[in-house]
UniProtKB/TrEMBL annotation:
InterPro entries: CHK_kinase-like, EcKL, Kinase-like_dom_sf. Transmembrane segments: none annotated. It comes from the Eukaryota. It comes from Chrysotila carterae. Pfam families: EcKL. Residues 141-327 form the CHK kinase-like domain. This is CHK kinase-like domain-containing protein.
Length: 384
């Protein structure tokens, strides 16, 4: 049955056993593990969109185990874009250099597929189709459990972040983008595993017709939601029509480290709101930091709060960006130009996500995409 299929799947992808045991952890986890019995407890109804999640008990300590989903469709999507490899490599190579705080990683293991292409074919259209057919490997991450930190780390309100939280995020984001702007670490990662832009710029010949097809579906399936925001359909059409140009604009050098899914859903805040931890790095890439800024400002806070404090928030970002680079390489005008492109590009991303759900899709994911399309349309209209 399903259990046998999981065993075969794990063997083919050389993944961690289910449940994971101390022997595997001692081979892969750094630093050394705490003493005690190892017990894996799956999260009920808490799987990530692209990952399976469980809590790992090691003696008296608790950790989060994140691994390849068993769901076939989710794995194919992740394989095409190499989401698993990207997150593992981020924790292995870049997290330690980032001024932005991330969960502590005890193990970050990528399990390459048995069938692999040479690197020069990896991100070609042939490579995309190859991974779609044969899979792209799996992963295992062992991270600190923010839920057991004595209430130290809190989620944002469902309505979005507060102004103090937004200020904390923009300080951290500016420092991270400045630290990695045109850095040797980014150049090295680009040469080996880090794609340019979250959706991988080499896939543009495939993505441009896909987003146009997705818009046709969304125009029909989400007509009520689109009608609730003046100009939303016009903006969606523009995002679809100019998807390639928008991507190329944000992919231009100099590039920095881009989180790629920079929403409050992937953040935790300290009790005083003066610290933030950011997780879920599967969409990490190189590109313009404006992509993260636009995503956060448009999707992360109520529109009225954003409008009232947007200039202040951008000033905070630029100050910490300049402090990290040591020079004022980024102007307010050029940043706003890229933010206008970024919010439309993110709108196109949400259109593709909404189309993949359709009328019979997961109700929660459908709601997330519909609300996101509305929020992004409002911000895009404000920034025109």
């Amino acid at each position: 049955g399903a259990a046998a299929m999981k065993v075969v799947r794990d063997w083919l992808r050389r993944e961690a056993p289910r449940p994971v045991g101390r022997a595997w952890l001692e081979r892969h986890a750094l630093p050394s593990l705490p003493p005690g019995k190892v017990t894996e407890v799956p999260f009920l109804n808490s799987d990530g969109m692209n990952s399976e999640m469980s809590q790992l008990h090691i003696g008296k300590e608790r950790f989060v185990l994140k691994r390849t989903p068993f769901d076939g469709k989710r794995h194919v999507d992740a394989a095409i874009q190499r989401w698993f490899e990207r997150e593992v490599c981020f924790y292995r190579e870049l997290a330690e250099f980032s001024p932005m705080r991330t969960p502590k990683s005890l193990a970050a293991v990528f399990h390459p597929p048995l069938l692999q292409l040479p690197s020069f074919l990896r991100d070609t259209l042939f490579g995309l189709r190859f991974r779609s057919a044969f899979g792209g490997g799996g992963f295992t991450l062992l991270l600190e459990d923010l839920n057991t930190a004595d209430g130290q780390w809190n989620v944002a309100s469902p309505d979005g972040v507060s102004l103090p939280q937004a200020m904390t995020v923009m300080r951290s984001l500016g420092s991270m983008h400045g630290r990695f702007r045109d850095s040797p670490e980014i150049a090295s990662a680009e040469a080996r595993w880090l794609p340019i832009m979250p959706s991988t710029i080499q896939f543009l010949p495939f993505m441009e017709p896909f987003v146009a097809k997705a818009l046709t579906s969304v125009r029909s399936e989400f007509s009520v939601e689109l009608a609730q925001v003046p100009g939303a359909l016009r903006l969606a059409e523009g995002a679809s029509q100019h998807y390639g140009a928008l991507t190329r604009q944000l992919a231009a050098a100099p590039r920095t480290l881009v989180h790629g899914d920079f929403r409050p859903a992937n953040m935790r805040f300290s009790q005083s709101d003066n610290e933030v931890i950011v997780y879920d790095w599967q969409f990490v890439s190189a590109g313009s930091g404006a992509f993260d800024i636009a995503s956060f400002l448009a999707l992360g806070m109520p529109a009225e709060l954003r409008r009232s404090h947007e200039s202040e928030l951008i000033d905070v970002y630029l100050k910490h960006h300049h402090d990290a680079t040591g020079t004022k390489q980024l102007s307010n005008a050029s940043l706003m130009q890229d933010m206008r492109a970024a919010v439309l590009l993110e709108l196109a991303v949400f259109i593709m996500g909404a189309a993949s759900e359709g009328a019979g899709g997961n109700p929660l994911f459908r709601k997330i995409h519909a609300h996101g399309i509305q929020q992004l349309s409002v911000a895009a209209s404000d920034w025109e």
